[in-house]
Amino acid sequence: MMDVKEYRTEIQNLINQIQQRFEVLSEDTVILCEKLEQYGELQREDALIGYACFIRGQYYYMKNDMLNFYREMLRCMHPFENIGEWGYLAVANNLLGIMSLNRGNAPFAMDYYSKALTLCRRYKLPDIEWQIHMNMGALFVNVENYENALKHYDLAYEYICGHQELAEYRLSLTASLVGLGRAHLSVGHMDEAEECRQKLEKRCIPYLRDIDQLPVYCLLARYYQKTGIVEKCNNALEKVADLFCDDLPIMDVYDDLYDYLKLLLETENYDLFSKMIVPITELTRKTTIRNLEQKQVSLLLRYYKMRGDETQYAKAAVRFVALDEMMEQENKMMVKNMIGLRLELNELAIVNHQIEEQNRSLQIRSQTDPLTGMYNRLRLNSYGETAFERAEKNQVGLAVEILDIDFFKEYNDNYGHQAGDKVIQFIAASIKKMQAGNRVFAARYGGDEFVLIYEGYTDEEVFALAKKLKKIITMERMPHRYSRTETKYVTISQGMYWEIPKKGTSIWQYLHEADNMLYKVKRKSRNSIMLGHANEEELKRGSDYLDRNNLVVLSATDEEN
Q1: How far apart are CA 545 and CA 535, in angstroms?
Q2: Contact 323, 293 (CB under 8 A)
Q3: How far apart are CA 33 and CA 52, in angstroms?
């Protein structure tokens, strides 16, 4: 249902009026939708344009005006694609599939159903998906592929049984049981068909309006005919005639009524056939779907032949041929529209792919430091939280290291900023060398600071990797005559914190403690590594100040020795 809250009061009222008029199938529905579409075009609001076309299409569907239905459903698809209204788009494809099947074009119907099913699975729309399975079941019954029909009906039935909160639960349950019953009868599964019959009579019929019982009695008539219970079959046939009315949405019950008319001929119930064929044919003609009308004429041909009425048979035969020619033109129109639709969807898919690629590129750039090509603080934030949760869940060690370049300001001031950038790039390249083959995340924290996250290592292993990084950098012996260290080369200081994550701590606490370690390095001995551990008891008390008794200091001289 359309969410009206984001629009101004006038439009909210208009949408509410449309929904109210549509519920009673008032002719005002079309007029109100035209007003909404005009506003949508004026404001360039695809949501309003798509919704207006969609509701008009549904209105025409319920009124058996299939030409206008077809036009409106095709028109709503492009604006819904533009704004990602996948639910409406899935329903539109589903309804177009129903119409295509009734036009006698099962391949087109399968295309529409497949598109709708893909949307439902991609965007998690199970409340629509089960309806598509129902219609795919009907399609496979239509082409006499009963094995696949049963698979789709079963999927729909299982979903409905598990969701008794559905707004029209009894109607949905009825539709699924009728579909299953028809498929089982077609392949001679009489035990399963009997089970469907019992459920329909106990769980559905008592709760249904008279008109909604019509497909049930069509099925029951066929069931009793198959089982040889003549009296109950005749009673069910009469019940269908009593329930029939001339304002049915014929598309929803056509298969049921067509099978009903065939059964009347098979049982030689000619009086009831001649009574029912007329109003059913009138409803069918309203759809302007020539395939349905031709199926009706084919039944008349059989009827006239069985009764020996050659004059009426000849007239019906002429009508059958005329409808055949009309269907050829109709199919050409459908093919033209389908090709146009596919071209539009293909072009849209290409545009969407390009947009996705651009978005992916922008996301990568937004999380990447342009100078070093490493991740930046934005990516560090998201990765750090995930890494902490993973380590806590698996109860493995996690370490955070913060490092910076010793006396970097002096380097920048004396060698220049371009040379300073090259030093930062050199440190980044050294980190990448250390990362190779190891489970270490690294990001540029800002300025000359970098953050590393080690997952699943012991404290000794983490310390060894930190030493490895220090060695890669010091072995390069990049000159830094303004350094206050003894080496007069570019060096780094490293503060680290390791622990198995516990509840009550967070990745930010690790960063804070690593930063404290780095601060102590700068105060005590530049070009060193300090590794801190947490005190278990203080962690339990939730203290922010952790014990640092387990502290290791590694100087450049120690490392070289």
Answers
A1: 9
A2: yes
A3: 5
Separation in Å, CA 107 to CA 85, 111, 143, 196: 25, 6, 11, 29
Q: What is the pLDDT along the chain (561 residues), one digit of tens a residue?
A: 556 556 778 888 899 899 999 989 899 999 999 999 998 888 888 899 999 999 999 999 998 888 889 889 989 988 998 888 999 999 999 999 998 888 888 888 898 999 999 999 999 999 999 999 999 999 999 889 999 999 999 999 999 999 999 889 999 999 999 999 999 999 999 999 999 999 999 999 999 999 999 999 999 999 999 999 999 999 999 999 999 998 888 888 999 999 999 999 999 999 999 999 999 999 888 887 888 888 888 999 999 999 999 999 998 888 888 887 777 666 665 555 555 555 554 555 555 555 455 555 555 555 788 889 889 888 888 889 889 989 998 899 999 999 999 999 999 999 998 999 999 999 999 999 998 888 899 999 888 999 999 999 998 899 999 999 999 999 999 999 999 888 889 999 999 999 999 887 889 889 999 998 998 888 877 778 878 776 544 333 333 333 333 444 444 444 443
Please report, for the chain, the start and end positions of each structural domain, with discontinuous segments joined by +: 377-560
For residues 145 and 149, give the distance between their C-alpha atoms in angstroms, rounded to a whole number: 6
Through-space distance between the first and last CA atoms of the chain, rounded to whole angstroms = 74
| DSSP state string for 288-307 | T-HHHHHHHHHHHHHHHHHH
**Residues 535, 546 contacting (CB under 8 angstroms):** yes
Nearest to 518 by CA among 553, 561, 543: 553
With contact defined as beta carbons under 8 Å apart, do 281 and 299 qualify? no
Q: Contacts from 314-320 at CB under 8 Å and sequence distance 24+?
A: 320/294
Distance between CA atoms of 227 and 253, rounded to whole angstroms? 23
- Residue 496 has φ and ψ, to the nearest 5°, of -135, 155
Any idea which residue has 């109950």 for tokens? 232
* CATH code of the region 377-560: 3.30.70.270
Q: Going by C-beta distance under 8 Å and a sequence separation of 6 or more, which residues neighbour residue 167?
A: none
Residue 340: CB atoms within 10 Å: 11
CA distance linking residue 305 with residue 315, whole number of Å = 12
Sign for the CA dihedral angle at 178, 133, 151, 162 comes to negative
Contact 95, 75 (CB under 8 A): no
